[in-house]
Amino acid sequence: MFDRFVGGRGSVHLWFALVVLVALLGILRVAMSHWRDGATLLGGAFLLAAVFRAGLSTERVGLLAIRSRPVDVVLYGALGAVIVFVAITIKGGPLAG
């Protein structure tokens, strides 16, 4: 699906780099005591990985391809959804600011 928009060998690493960038931003937000925002970004990184894994061919997805496509999409999506759900629904906590 996304294959026609980006070409070349560097695009194999682009999708993984985007997911890692979102995850690093989430970790940075957690380190700055904004744990709810950071956890939401970390969950969003997994959801982004699920979208890329579902929409890109196995050759283009690079390091995001760990298992078969359906298993990767379900696991990335479920983990991302759970993290976002927990981050949104938990009230207070030791790091609440």
TrEMBL record:
Keywords: Membrane, Transmembrane, Transmembrane helix. Pfam families: DUF3017 (PF11222). It comes from the Bacteria. The keyword Membrane applies. The chain crosses the membrane at residues 12-32, 38-58, 70-90. This is DUF3017 domain-containing protein.
